[in-house]
Each structure stands twice: as C-alpha cells, then as structure tokens.
Amino acid sequence: MSVSSVRVTVPATTANLGPGFDCFGAALTLYNQLKFILEANQKLVINITGTEAARVATDESNLVYQAFVKFFQHIEQTPPPVKIEIKLGVPLARGLGSSATAIVGGLIGANILAGDILTPTQIMELAIAMEGHPDNVVPALLGGCRLAATSDAGWEICDIPWCDNIVPVLAIPDFELSTSVAREVLPTQVSRGDAIFNTAHLGLLLRGLETGNKNWLRAGLQDKLHQPYRKSLIHNYENIYEAALSAGAYGMVISGAGPTLLAITDTANSQAVATAMASEWQNKGIIAQVQALQIDRKGATTFKEF
Ligand code: HSE
C-alpha cells in the first residue's frame, strides 16, 4: 500500500552554541509542522498558517518545495504533483533554524512519498549540502545536541549529553538578520591564537554541558570565530549580555547567525534570566519573545496516511 500523505514535524535548532561555529547545535522544543499530500493532476498548492505566514513564498521558490524537488532530482525522478500545508511555529530569519526545518521537512516528506528510497544518512547528507553547514540540519533531523565533523568516510555525528539541569533561555527579537548578511561580516582567515581558543573552549563546553560543571560552562560558552564580528549587528547585545549574566546565566551566545540570543542557565535562575533579557530589549523599544525551552530529543518525526 502506498502512502498518500505524510505529516512531518521538525524542531527549531540553535546552531554554533558559542565556540562550535558551523559544527555544533541543538534541537529545541519549538516546531514547524508540514503535511505533504499527493494530488494527482494538480498544480502545486502551498498553504501556510502561523503569524508570519504571509511572508513565506507559496510558489516554486518555497524552500520546503525546493527541498522536495531536490530529493526527486537526486533520485532522478520527476517530482509528483503535491499539496503542501505548513504550520509555522519557528520564527523566520531569527537564528532558530527555520530554513533547516524547511530543508529537512521537504526531503523527509519527499522520501516517504517516494517509498523510503534513501537512508537517514543519505537524507542528512543531502540536507547538509543544501544548507551549506551541518549545525542546524543535523539536530533538526536527529534531535538532541549534536557535533558534526567531516571524516574520510563522510560525516561523523556525535550525540553530546546535555545535563537535565541546564536550561536554554531564548530571547527572540522582533527584528530579523539574514544568515547571508551575518556570514558576510566574518573573516575568511583566523589567527592561530583564535583557533586554539575555540578548540579548547569547545572541549570545555562539551564537558560542561555533560556534567553541569559551572566553571566549564562559564568559560566554555566563549567564542572568537563568529560572535566578535556579529555582535554589532544585534542591537543592545552588550547590555543584554550583562543583564543575563547578572541574573545568573552561565553565559550568553548568539543563536545561529542571530539575532536571537541564547542564555544558558540552571533551572533555578531561568525565569530571572528570561525576565532580565526581555526587559533590556524592551528598554530600547524592541519587543522580544523570551522563552525557557528544553532540548528536543526526537528530531524530525513523521506520521503517514494511506
Ligand atoms: N553556523 C551557521 C552560522 C548557522 O553561524 O552562520 C546559521 O545558519
């Protein structure tokens, strides 16, 4: 019996996590929901709901559909006529992996409608190639906190334990920052000192996340590869950083390419940190949605209808 429609739920992600530029990210309990329905002899239909729905393309340039088409190009088949319903829960262009949800969702939806032709590893490789870096698409696909590194055999993906008492607090402002703009400000070469700094601090962060060791977390969230160049793109960054740390956060980083800011704290301080970050932005007339989230452990999930 063949599948006539499939629902795919994909989590938001926070990439980089301080010193893990372009290689380290975690899935969050915030979701986009997609439904792919085979519609014989129909033109493409894309329906989108959610507060930012009006800003997303509903034609062939839609990223979910682009990923759907990419899948069929990869297996050298013509994409079937499809209706796509998208329920947006992940804010757009805020550094929370909205494009990764579209890519992962489009590829998985296409694979299921095609009869599960590609393996999860092949889907992951296609997703990384489409996005250009692995730190959003890998946790979006697999869930959890993931380190991705290239090897002679392809990609090595490592599941990083995240101590239950560590809470990600997200401050999501009402302005956007495109990833391409945020990548343009980065230097193409870095010094040996900065490379050593990030290597050592990523090691500290991994052990800090696993053990909850406060000193390793405080030091380990620092970065010299992207944040020093990007923070000037985020209005009031320094004051929010100070406010989050004064309220008890171990550290604060730019989520993905920004502008969302992510504080890492313990359960006891999470509400105080959230309030402090929101009010610092509010003082400058910026509305921020502030949420203490959890790490999503499941990644992309599917539900098939026959
Ligand atoms: N690692 C990427 C960056 C994530 O920081 O540019 C954004 O998609």
Main attributes of the structure:
10 helices, 4-stranded antiparallel sheet, Alpha-Beta Plaits, 2 domains, 7-stranded mixed sheet, alpha+beta, 306 residues, Ribosomal Protein S5, domain 2, binds L-homoserine
Share of β-strand residues: 25-35%
Span between termini: 7 Å
Radius of gyration: 19 Å
Shape: globular
Bound molecules: L-homoserine
Provide a quick synopsis of the model.
The chain is α+β, with helices and mostly antiparallel strands.
Plain-language structure description:
The chain is of the alpha+beta class and 306 residues long. The chain has two domains: 5-160 and 295-305, Ribosomal Protein S5, domain 2, CATH 3.30.230.10; 166-292, Alpha-Beta Plaits (2-Layer Sandwich). The protein contains ten helices and eleven strands. The protein has helices spanning 63-74, 98-113, 120-131, 134-142, 179-184, 192-211, 214-220, 227-230, 237-246, 270-283; strands at residues 5-15, 24-38, 45-49, 82-87, 145-151, 154-159, 166-173, 251-254, 261-266, 288-292, 301-305. Strands 1, 2, 3, 4, 5, 6 and 11 form a seven-stranded mixed beta sheet that branches. Helix 1 (63-74) links the parallel strand 3 and strand 4 (82-87). It is globular and about 60 Å long. The model has no long low-confidence stretch (mean pLDDT 96). Bound molecules: L-homoserine. L-homoserine (HSE) is lined by residues 15-16, 22, 133, 135-136, 179, 182-183, 226, 256-257.
